[in-house]
Amino acid sequence: MFDLSDPASIGTLIGMAGGLGGPVYTFFSNRSKAASAEIDSLKKDIEELEKRLTTAEFKLNQMPDSEAIHRLELQLEKVNGQLETMSAKLAPIDNLSRRLQEILLQKVNA
Length: 110
Prior knowledge:
This protein is mainly alpha-helical. The chain folds into two domains: 1-63; 65-110. 91% of the residues lie in helices and 0% in strands.
């Protein structure tokens, strides 16, 4: 087929190799560019996720822990107890004001 002792045959082989080398180089360089673009896109995605994670961690650290919530629950129970006490103390005053209002309405209507 090809006689390697003949310079023309060697030139033909080099030409064929060069002719195939271009498309092979283009194929691999395009794949490399596509891979590079995909890597850049993934880097951007990772940066965005890192920002979101940092924001979520900050918000989570600002939230009260279980001890703080327990203290709030105790304070709310104390306030509820005080409100019940106040309500019981105000009941007679409410009754008195209703009776006084009835008396005043009877005098006005009479």
